[in-house]
Amino acid sequence: DGVTEVLAHRSDNLRDKFVQVPCSGDYDSHKRFEGCTPRKCGRGVTDAIITREEAERIRRIAERGLSLGGSDGGASILDLHSGALSLGKHFVNLYRYFGDKIHDIFTEEDFALYRDVRQRIQQRIAQVFGISSASLYLTKPTFFSRMDSTEAKTTHDEYWHPHVDKVTYGSFDYTSLLYLSDYTQDFGGGRFVFLDADSNKTVEPRAGRVSFFTSGSENLHRVERVQWGTRFAITISFSCDPQHGIDDPRRR
């Protein structure tokens, strides 16, 4: 992997760390939204907007939802918006599959916390990139992930390949990750790696830490394979295009 620099150690308590990088041309092949589409690109890390206690509560939402299913391989997904849940080698719709039982799994408070956390992350992204928070729209997919060292059974389990979010999901303009467990305490491996021409920059997950970045090729990235333990995170992404906006998930 060449030279690796650590952008954020697990032991750090970062208020605001931001590294600006030149924007790629990826945004030019999509409709531009003035005052929102990235002109300033980069990546940031903060431990100051979500508390560890809130991260623990959110992790419990993920654990309860994923306890209903789970992938046969090492990567399981739970999307509260669409209802997508890993089950064996496939996905099911949580809301259709489990029906009214879902009311026993998720509470109104769970969804209120989710909304609150999403809003804080959205405001921080807007502030750092100098855009209006109102110009950002939550977009899909936005999902919980649970990763462990189980061998991959399908391509969905192979989360470690380098990728660009804007290329994978055209709607993404700004991506964020909220970590819900601690590197070296809850799991080994599983660091987030930005793949730059000169060196790799890694973010070590820590419960409550938010990593966020512009979604184009300027932030090519991968996640290391988890070696032991279980890594929980939630990916929350934003689009500048209102047509790609989705509502917050709600209790059904």
TrEMBL record:
InterPro entries linked: OGFOD3, Oxoglu/Fe-dep_dioxygenase_dom, Pro_4_hyd_alph, Pro_4_hyd_alph_FE2OG_OXY
GO cellular component terms attached to this protein's record: membrane
Keywords noted in UniProt: Dioxygenase, Iron, Metal-binding, Oxidoreductase
Cofactor annotation: L-ascorbate
Residues in Fe2OG dioxygenase domain copies: 130-242
GO molecular function, one term: iron ion binding
Origin: domain of life: Eukaryota
UniProt cross-references to Gene3D superfamilies, sorted A to Z: q2cbj1_9rhob like domain (2.60.120.620)
Matches recorded under PANTHER family: 2-OXOGLUTARATE AND IRON-DEPENDENT OXYGENASE DOMAIN-CONTAINING PROTEIN 3, PROLYL HYDROXYLASE-RELATED
Name of the protein in its database record: OGFD3 protein
